[in-house]
Amino acid sequence: MFVFHWIVGVLVGAVLLAALARRLRAPYPAFLALGGVGLAFLPGMPSLSLDPELALALFLAPVLMDAGYSTSLRDLMRNARPIAGLAVGAVAATTAAVAAVALWLVPDMPLAAAIVLGAVVAPPDAVAALSVLGHVSLPHRLATILRGESLLNDAASLLIYRLGVAAAVTGHFSVSEVAPAFAVGVVGSLVAGPLAALVYLRILRRVEEPVSVIVLQFAAAFGLWIAAEAMELSGVLTVVSFAITVARRAPGQTSPRLRVISNAVWETAIFVLNVLAFVLIGEQIGPILSRMTPEQEFAYASVAGAVVVTVILVRIAWVLPASAVRRVGFGSGSVHPDDLRPTRDLGLGAGFAVSWSGMRGLVTIATALALPEGGPEGREFPYRDLIVLTAFCVVIGTLVVQGLTLRPILARLGLEDSDPVGHEVGRARAEAYGAAVDALKGDQSEAADALRREFHAALAQAEAHEEGLAPEGLPTDEPRRRAIHAARDRLLALRRNGRIGDDAYFVLEQELDWAELNATPRAEA
């Protein structure tokens, strides 16, 4: 019963921390990290553990599925050069620098363990980056680069991580043996993901219930990761390519009701996974600290502090020189003119914005938790306590230092663009309204005539706009909301005075919900 109460308390505390983060317009993982610090020193914590082999599948598969589904393949291709530079080059540079710092401070540390430490702390986190970007005004192209980096850098870091773990455990490593398998794994992952997506979509056509579809979505995320790992493919690339393929093909066969429900479920699941990750790592920090001698406390604190500084400085050193000479492509590259024009002269300002957006989070925690713990049937990974503690400090340091300062820094830099997404939305909305009018031709009913007048009014506003952008909402949206609000009030009154029962009220409430969803979503929503 105590564990149940404790879990409820943790979830309620996480919700309150997330609400505080929204109020302060800060990334909620930063506040969850601070909550994890509190859990590390809280007496009487229940003993929680997770099989290291399941850690990566549990935490990374759904996060990558969710991020991949909302990723624009077109924008990834347009910004392939800067994304590759960050997702591969910056990860490799950070891993090497952290490994060098660790070996310098802890000479007895095996090289493989030092490389694993570097791979654990190298990749910035998608959830942390997106939670920050949701509260700041950032040029669309820079936001695309950061999203693409946080989506793909896991593949590079996990490759280095797995090679380092294997070398540390077996004591043997050969590039000549690994390279062919790696090449086959990358190609195989990029083929297996889309093929699995096509099979999944055929199955999806036969399933209509939202609950069943959402269960299939999670089963696909976990099952695909486990299958890819079993076949020695890249779980990251397989899941991401699967999600992107499904996102391109599924909307035509997915009902609006399913999309609304699915988005809410996945957003909740990602939040709960973040809470669980910080709880698990916080639960491990307490025992680690209790096992340390005073000399170890100083040594480990020195390593953790040095690694936090290293990951921040290496990213700055990687991005700023490249942006200055325009090799990374923050001011140039193969992009659409609408994306290029407003960011052509951002220069070092854009580079600093990208370099300061390197918050670590769920990926770093998951890979640290996945290190072998030892026990009766195996030995513990060398310097595991140091790596877990350092990973926790890097997450805390980057989320707090960078996450909480990124918004004011971006406001100070004054980076702006001409809202290319808004322009695409306005033009596409006008074309969609035109197609709606064409579909009503020949229908002389009063209902069709009312719809035609509504869409014609919106098209008239688009034609009057200097760039042909249609308005955000239809003319009847606001009257519809006002009428539905009045209808809700009347239903509540009928329910209160006993003229209708709860069963009838819930039926009518759902009807009004769907009627209100017919209105264009308001900006504040």
From TrEMBL:
Membrane spanning stretches: 6-21, 28-48, 54-71, 83-105, 111-134, 155-175, 181-203, 210-227, 233-251, 263-281, 301-325, 386-406
Record Pfam families: Na_H_Exchanger
One MF annotation (Gene Ontology) recorded for this entry: potassium:proton antiporter activity
InterPro entries in the cross-refs: Cation/H_exchanger_CPA1 (IPR018422), Cation/H_exchanger_TM (IPR006153)
Compartment list: Cell membrane
GO BP field: regulation of intracellular pH; sodium ion import across plasma membrane
Domain Cation/H+ exchanger transmembrane: 14-411
Gene Ontology CC annotations of this record: plasma membrane
Domain of life: Bacteria
Membrane topology annotation: Multi-pass membrane protein
Ion transport recorded as keyword: yes
Keywords, sorted A to Z: Cell membrane, Ion transport, Membrane, Sodium, Sodium transport, Transmembrane, Transmembrane helix, Transport
PANTHER family the UniProt entry points to: SODIUM/HYDROGEN EXCHANGER (PTHR10110), SODIUM_HYDROGEN EXCHANGER 7 (PTHR10110:SF86)
Name of the protein this chain belongs to: Sodium/hydrogen exchanger
Originating organism: Methylorubrum populi (strain ATCC BAA-705 / NCIMB 13946 / BJ001)
UniProt lineage: Bacteria, Pseudomonadati, Pseudomonadota, Alphaproteobacteria, Hyphomicrobiales
